[in-house]
Every structure is written in structure tokens, then in C-alpha cells.
Amino acid sequence: MHTFTPLATRARLLFHLQAFSRLLLFWLPFCVVAGMVGAFTWQPLYAATAATSLLFLRFLIAVWWPWLSWRRWGWTLRDGELLIARGVLFRSITAIPMERVQHVDVRQGPLEQWLDLARVHVHTASGLGADGVVPGLVHRVAEELRDALVKAAAEGDDGV
Fold first, then answer.
1. Sign of the dihedral defined by the CA atoms of residues 48, 54, 58, 63, in that order
2. 73-155 architecture in CATH?
3. Which tens digit of pLDDT belongs to each residue from 7-63?
4. Closest CA to 149 of 102, 107, 109, 114
5. CB atoms within 10 A of CB 45
6. Contact 30, 52 (CB under 8 A)
């Protein structure tokens, strides 16, 4: 069994802020529109009850799911590869061999900047975008992970 480094404690707040942003910017307008459309096709009381129930369910998910997700994220460097663990219902562990690493990015969105957090994007030879992402790292730790990945990938460089 591998010992994974957990995300920063502040990442839990980040995950909650992102979930509540989705709730306010997507789910609230969606439920209002769905309730209004439903009022024309069903009885208004049923439509309002359905829309309110959906919004309440999404609120509960916004409160509960980010905490579970934060607990399940982790990463570790071992034996020439980066392991990334994640997933609440379906657990996933991604192994990225250092010799496949093409480049590594450290990125911050507005909320991450405010919380001094960052995410590390690891790109491999597949060319399909980031093949591994580790969110919710303290910015200093994200830069250290990036530097360690770049160094390890350069050591294993075969000159191709």
C-alpha cells in the first residue's frame, strides 16, 4: 500500500467554494427556470416542489461532496513515477512514469490565488492535454512538486 500526501487543508475550503459557485451560478437558475416551465406543464405546486427539492438536494451535495472529495485526493512520488489517487464513489489511482513527462504546469485560478493554492498539471507524450492533475496544493509545494517532476524526468531522459 502506498502512503499518499494529502492535499492542503485549505483545499477543502476551495472545493466547497467551487461547489457553492456551481450551486449559485448553475443549479439555482436551472431550478428556477425548470420550476417556471414545469408550472405551465404540471400543476404549479408540483413544479415548485420538484424544483425546490432538486435545489435542496444539490445544496446537500455541495455541503457534503467536497469534503469527501478532499479526503480522497492524494499524490506521491515513488520509483520513477507520480501516483495520483482520487475518487469518492469510484477510486482511481493514476501512475505517470517520469520518462513519459513532457512538461509540467503550475496553475492558479482566482480562488486558488486568494487561498495561496495551486494545481499541478502533468503533460505526457499522449498530447491529449494534462494527463495528471493534482489540485489543492499550497503554492510553494506545487512549485516544489513541479521542480521534482522536471528534475526526475530530465534524469530519465533518453535523448529522444
1. positive
2. Roll (2.30)
3. 999 999 999 999 999 999 999 999 999 999 999 998 999 999 999 999 999 999 999
4. 102
5. 9
6. no
